[in-house]
């Protein structure tokens, strides 16, 4: 009865309870839905995170591959550069060896050519031939095909050059060829080295020597005339006599036409007897090149020697000069001793150098 009365007294309480239960159920469902949504969001976020991580790993992997590629590319470039340098070095070495061989061959050929040229600078065909054959036999020049040996057997085939080897070179800026005039003649005038030997000659022998009939520069002379005169001019001679006179000459092409007296030649007139005149004399020339090695030779001393009529002995190179003096009867021949290399004075005790 009490229960029934209670229900009858509070008819909305059950409804309220039911509404509350329904509300709880609805809230629970909302919670469940929210949880499901959150879980779904979490899974989605996790999936995104994993995706991002995978992308990051992939990017790292890709970046690592690019870096490796760069390193490999750099290494490859360096390797190519090193290979290139090595190849260049090898090529340079090969080229250097080739150039060395070429240079060595050229130097050897030049050496052989210089030897041959020196060997024929005698003015004498026979002497030139002997010199060339000696170089061949001694092995100083190569002749694999025997061409030089065959030519050396033919006297007409052996070239002969003026004896330029007896000049030491330029003197006070003047080359052996001088300046102007006849270079071939100047070379002979400027010889300042002694011959291998001096041949004793009498003045009359020199006067009697045949003279070439040609004139003008020597390069224009016929070859046979040049050969004949060159053979005589390759001789060193020593003669005895007396100084008839001693005079300085004017400027010459052999001395570059220099004006000062110290740059001029001195002309000595040699005669066989103290009282002989210039018409029977042989000219001897003392050049500045030679005087540079003999400061004791002075013009005054030679003129004093001429005045004293002391006997002298003159050594030097034989040379065919200008016929001008002979034409004006200032000499007996155009052959002369030019240059004078040695002057000796005679006495009872023998010969002594001029001092």
Provide structural commentary.
It contains ten helices and seven strands. It is an alpha+beta fold. It folds into two domains: 18-108; 176-353, OB fold (Dihydrolipoamide Acetyltransferase, E2P) (Beta Barrel), CATH 2.40.50.140. The chain is rod-shaped, with a radius of gyration of 57 Å. Residues 1-15 and 66-71 have low confidence and may be disordered.
Question: What structural keywords apply?
Answer:
2 domains; 7 strands; disordered N terminus; single chain; OB fold (Dihydrolipoamide Acetyltransferase, E2P); 355 residues
Number of strands: 7
Quickly count the domains.
2
Q: What structural class should be given to the helix and strand makeup?
A: alpha+beta
Q: Radius of gyration, Cα only, in angstroms?
A: 57 Å
Number of helices: 10
Spatial arrangement of strands, main beta sheet = 2-3-4-6-5
CATH class of the largest domain, named: Mainly Beta
- Would you identify the CATH architecture of the largest domain? Beta Barrel
Overall pLDDT = 81
The CATH topology annotation of the largest domain reads as OB fold (Dihydrolipoamide Acetyltransferase, E2P)
List the helices and strands in order: HHHHHEHHEEEHHEHEE
Biggest sheet details:
5 strands, mixed, barrel
Distance between the termini: 184 Å
Shape: rod-shaped
CATH homologous superfamily placement of the largest domain: Nucleic acid-binding proteins
Helix content: 40-55%
């Amino acid at each position: 009865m009490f229960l029934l009365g209670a229900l009858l007294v509070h008819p909305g309480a059950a409804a309220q309870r039911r509404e509350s239960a329904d509300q709880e159920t609805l809230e629970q469902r909302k919670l469940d839905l929210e949880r499901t949504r959150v879980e779904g969001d979490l899974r989605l976020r996790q999936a995104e995170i994993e995706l991002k991580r995978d992308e990051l790993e992939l990017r790292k992997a890709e970046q690592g591959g690019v870096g490796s590629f760069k390193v490999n590319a750099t290494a490859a470039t360096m390797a190519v550069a090193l290979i290139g340098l090595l190849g260049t070095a090898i090529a340079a070495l090969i080229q250097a060896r080739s150039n060395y061989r070429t240079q060595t061959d050229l130097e050897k050929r030049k050496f052989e050519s210089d030897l041959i040229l020196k060997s024929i600078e005698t003015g004498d065909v026979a002497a030139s031939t002997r010199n060339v054959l000696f170089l061949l036999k001694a092995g100083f020049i190569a002749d694999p095909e025997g061409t030089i040996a065959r030519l050396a057997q033919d006297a007409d085939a052996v070239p002969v050059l003026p004896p330029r080897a007896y000049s030491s070179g330029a003197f006070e800026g003047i080359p052996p060829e001088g300046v102007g005039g006849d270079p071939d003649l100047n070379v002979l005038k400027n010889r300042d080295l002694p011959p291998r030997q001096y041949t004793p000659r009498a003045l009359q022998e020199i006067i009697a020597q045949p003279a070439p009939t040609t004139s003008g520069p020597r390069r224009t002379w016929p070859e046979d005339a040049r050969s004949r005169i060159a053979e005589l001019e390759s001789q060193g001679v020593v003669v005895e006599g007396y100084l008839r006179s001693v005079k300085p000459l004017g400027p010459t092409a052999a001395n570059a036409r220099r004006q000062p007296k110290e740059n001029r030649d001195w002309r000595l007139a040699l005669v066989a007897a103290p009282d002989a005149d210039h018409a029977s004399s042989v000219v001897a020339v003392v050049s500045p090149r030679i005087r540079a090695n003999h400061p004791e030779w002075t013009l005054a001393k030679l003129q004093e020697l001429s005045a004293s009529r002391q006997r002298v002995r003159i050594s030097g190179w034989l040379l065919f000069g200008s016929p001008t003096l002979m034409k004006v009867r200032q000499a007996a021949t155009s052959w002369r001793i030019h240059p004078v290399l040695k002057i000796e004075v005679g006495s009872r005790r023998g010969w002594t150098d001029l001092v």
